[in-house]
Amino acid sequence: MMTTSDIIASLALLVTVVGQIRSELKARKSDSDQRVMKLEQDRLRKLLLDKETKAALNEMKAELGARLVNISRSSYRLKIFNRGKVEARNINILFPDNDGSEYLMMDDVKEKFPYEVLHPQHGIEIVAVLGYGCKTKYRIKLVWDDGYQKKNEEEFFISM
């Protein structure tokens, strides 16, 4: 037969065991939550590092663009510009379709290219001659060097 003290001791043991089990379950959940948080922090750190790396690379790149601009009623210019943050060097213009003479003054092109240095937010203008019968779209390729790499290339479609 169990005495009162045996019953009290058994209940105390039961309460202790239940408390220990609950504590262990909470610790495991907390460990799991911490692991999840650590993985998320690692992922966020990697994303931030990737973003910072891309930003640092962009700081080294010139970003060239080109468009045909109507200056007056029948006067056009091909504008090549640098909207990047560093200068572009040794810029060349190529005509993949061999049609540059159809709409540009090639003497102007030969006189200006290769263009030595194009600073950020500056541009080059080439006299364009557009008449009836001209195509509405032309393709050019620009090649340049910058702080990121040599021989960057980009194609542009110039349209009226």
Short description:
With 160 residues, this protein is an alpha+beta fold. The chain has helices at residues 4-58, 106-112, and strands at 64-72, 75-82, 88-94, 115-118, 123-128, 137-145, 152-159. It is built from 2 helices and 7 strands; from the N terminus they run H-E-E-E-H-E-E-E-E.
What would you call the quaternary organization? single chain
Shape: rod-shaped
Q: SSE order, as H and E? A: HEEEHEEEE
CATH class of the largest domain: Mainly Beta
Let me know the average pLDDT.
87
Fraction of helical residues: 25-40%
Overview of this protein structure:
- By secondary structure, the chain is an alpha+beta fold.
- It folds into two domains: 1-58; 64-159, Immunoglobulin-like.
- Helices cover 39% and strands 32% of the residues.
- The chain contains two helices and seven strands; from the N terminus they run H-E-E-E-H-E-E-E-E.
- It has helices spanning 4-58, 106-112, and strands at residues 64-72, 75-82, 88-94, 115-118, 123-128, 137-145, 152-159.
- Strands 4-3-6-7 form a four-stranded antiparallel beta sheet, with no helix packed on it. The protein has a three-stranded antiparallel beta sheet with strand order 1-2-5.
- The longest helix is centred in the N-terminal third of the chain and has 55 residues, at 4-58.
- It starts with a helix and ends with a strand.
- The mean pLDDT is 87.
Please give the structural blueprint.
Layout (H helix, E strand, L loop, with lengths): L3 H55 L5 E9 L2 E8 L5 E7 L11 H7 L2 E4 L4 E6 L8 E9 L6 E8 L1
Antiparallel strand pairs: 1-2, 2-5, 3-4, 3-6, 6-7
